[in-house]
Design a protein that fits this description.
Layout lengths: L5 H6 L2 H13 L5 H18 L1
Helix pairs in contact: 2-3
């Protein structure tokens, strides 16, 4: 996997990180149901921070 600069890392969104980690771990894109579950979790966590 390619290294990212600090500026690139700072611009990543949580779903970008999830997708990259999933691909690194499982060697494929995350299935739609996993992406939906992650989005639901991220939304719930954002609601707690507000």
């Amino acid at each position: 996997s390619e290294a990212l600069s600090l500026d690139q890392l700072a611009q990543l969104q949580p779903d970008d990180i999830f997708r990259r980690l999933w691909a690194q771990r499982y060697g494929d894109e995350a299935p739609p149901e996993q992406l939906a579950a992650f989005a639901e979790l991220a939304t719930a966590l954002d609601g707690d921070a507000a």
